[in-house]
Amino acid sequence: MEPRQSYQWAQIARSSEFIKLMKKRKKFQIFSAIFFVLYYFALPVLAGYTDLLNKSVFGSINGIYLFALSQFFMAWILAFIYVRHANQLDQTIEQIKKDLSKEGLS
Amino acid sequence: MAFLFFSIIVLITLLITYWASKRTSTTADFYVAGKSISGWQNGIAIAGDYMSAASFLGIAGIIALNGFDGFMYSVGWLVAYLVVLIIVAEPLRNTGQYTLADMLAYRMSRKPVRAVAALSTITISTFYMIAQLVGAGGIIKLLLGLDYELSIIIIGVLMIFYVVFGGMLATTWVQIIKAVLLMAGTVILSFLVLSKFNFSMVEMFNQVSERYGQSFLEPGKLYKNPLDNISLGLALLAGTAGLPHILIRFYTVPTAREARKSVVWAMLIIGAFYIMTTFLGFGASLLVGQDKIMLADKSGNMSAPLLAEALGGPYFLAFISAVAFATILAVVAGLVISAAGAFAHDFYANVLRNGKATESEQIKVARYGSVGVGIISIILALLCKNQNVAFLVALAFAVAASANLPVIIFSLFWKRFNTYGAVAGMLTGLLSSIILVIISPNVMEASAIFPLKNPALLSVPLGFIGAILGTLLSKNTTSEESYTELYVRANTGIGMKD
Question: Chain B: residue nearest A64 by CA?
């Protein structure tokens, strides 16, 4: 195990790469959180206060069941999008780490 | 027959424990399997840790008896993982060793924060465990005819054994095996159910509608008050990301990238499982019938086993019963190890001993802690015989949502947040959840002062408000430096001790 390094945290935090990373990360976190919270709570609200989706779609399968089912696919798709996004951010993080070792900040 | 399957499961898990015990010598081995678990293994283990017998037997029963509302109930269990994936998992992995408090300790004074975090962790795990054990006693009695007391003692002793001797490595593999068995059982059951309806969901839904009326497929049978359902949804969404036995799993992988991968694996498995509860539930209501389900157990817990018997005879019933048994074991083992970690790592090593405890002392305390947590839970579960404790699961989620999540979010994103805020937030969340449940219909029934079964709708905002007030009313003690350090570490993983 290498000895514990001390880093110039403030310097890293001020670097343009890090600021760019956080801007992208926060933007994704905020937009996706707003989206999935609204999408999810639409289910108990629509189910509890309206009968808008009770119409049948396929035989006895109605809209509200399909909307509930769609939540699973929403979660999977959003997770997939996040992973693609995060993999891109990983490259920025690698860049920050590379810059660090170049500057010998340890 | 069921006994044979049960014995095989016990034998295999004990062999794993023996194998794991030879590989468990340091504290990192004990708490987090030496951070050696790969992303996909951890994903399966998270699923195994999370999908409790209450999900497997309970949700199938709720759907069989209440139709659509039962399925709506299952949705939140998956969507909650988006909070885990997008907000919590990676920063936590980047900043912690074994527990949630490790992250907080970067910015705050160690002792009070660790003490309160340990309190909240142990409370959540104990509530959750009592609910699991009491449910397990009832289920094993139905499945095997064993006494309630004997069932609980068998499960309790096994869970202590896995954790004390095999640590996190044994716990992980018990969870993986359980998840594989549970998925296999659920897939086979679903396939058999669908085969009765020419593999047409429309056909199945039409028959449900014919027999129980179209209203059975519409909302309103279970949740008379929509706010109950909204409050429960909030507890799941905000609580899953604060459950200690789920959080500790993120420390068992080597990197944040693997942590991310493990959540995705867990989401695939958990989502597939909850979608299939439709087939189990509606299948049972048609192929077994509500009368027969209610006759076996009023709350519907026997739907899935009875469905297995109807479709595959006694052997399949025995197999599904064994799956339920493995399910219980995996979940309670995960709970014991997370509670023991909080006790030994946060409370003993860092609060009592100021971080000066040696490796071997810590392991010893962690093992004693596991035995202690296990025995206390067994005793409490024995005392709760014939009590309806299902609300304890809701309470555990509510505490996790109200005490842990606000503090996790503020320490990652709010510069001014300080020790007072963290302690105030956790205590407000913890106490308000417990008090609101005590004055709710769960405990006070008709004379309830607070109308909702799940307190989250009020207790989560209270947890946030507690954290905000605690911070703003105290002196600004934040050191810019420590916040910056946590902020950079959490988001990049720089400085992680490998």
Answer: B218
Buried b or exposed e, range B203-222, using 16+ CB within 10 angstroms:
ebbbbbbeebebebbbbbbb
Residue closest to A18 by CA, chosen among B440, B485, B400: B485
**Number of Cβ within a 10 Å radius of residue A94:** 11
Looking at residue B373, which CATH number applies to its domain? Answer: 1.20.1730.10
Regarding an ipTM greater than 0.90, the answer is: yes
Our CA dihedral for A72, A78, A81, A85, rounded to 10 degrees, sits at: -140
Identify all chain A residues contacting B491, using CB atoms and an 8 Å cutoff: 18, 21-22, 25
* Cβ partners under 8 Å of residue B152, min gap 6: B133, B134, B136, B137, B378, B381, B382
Which of B85, B237, B488 is nearest residue A40 as measured by Cβ atoms?
Answer: B237
Amino acid at residue number B71: F
Q: Which amino acid is at B325?
A: F
* Rounded distance between C-alpha atoms, residue B190 and residue B183, angstroms: 10
Cα angle for residues B198, B55, B64 (degrees, 5° grid): 45
The label of the residue with tokens 């016990």 reads B10
Burial class (CB in 10 A: 0-12, 13-18, 19+), B401: buried
Kindly report the nearest CA distance between residue A72 and chain B, in angstroms: 6
Phi, psi of B213, deg, nearest 5: 90, 150
Per residue in B150-160, pLDDT tens? 999 999 999 99
Contact B492 A93 (CB under 8 A): yes
Question: Could you give the 3-state DSSP secondary structure of residue A5?
Answer: coil
Residue B407 CA to residue B374 CA, distance in Å, equals 28
Q: How many folded domains does chain B comprise?
A: 1
Burial B155-172 (b: 16+ CB within 10 A, else e): bbebbbbbbbbbbbbbbb
Q: Hey, which residues does B212 pair with through a beta bridge?
A: none
Contact B232, B456 (CB under 8 A): yes
Nearest neighbour of B233 by CB, restricted to A18, A40, A93? A40
Residue with tokens 């992303």: B39
pLDDT per residue over B22-76, tens digit each? 999 888 999 999 999 999 999 999 999 999 887 788 889 999 999 999 999 899 9
pLDDT band at B200 (very low <50, low <70, confident <90, very high): very high
Q: In whole angstroms, how far apart are CA B129 and each of B6, B118, B156, B236, B367?
A: 21, 16, 10, 17, 18
Q: How far apart are CA B252 and CA B247, in angstroms?
A: 10
Of A7, A33, A68, Cβ closest to residue B86: A33
**3-class SS of residue B272:** helix
Residue A22: CB atoms within 10 Å:
17
pLDDT tens for residues B122-150? 999 999 999 889 888 887 887 788 899 99
User: Is residue B401 one of the residues assigned to a domain?
Assistant: no
Helix (H, G, I), strand (E, B) or coil at B103: helix
Instruction: State the distance between the two ends of chain A, measured CA to CA, in whole angstroms.
Output: 15
The tokens for B220 are 């309103």
Residue B362 lies in a domain: yes
Residues of A in Cβ contact (< 8 Å) with B107: none
B314: which residues sit within 8 A by CB, 6+ positions away? B1
- In this structure, what token pair is assigned to residue B476? 């600004």
Whether B449 is covered by a domain: the verdict is no
B481 found inside a domain: no
Residue type, B316: F
Domain residue limits at B12: 2-388
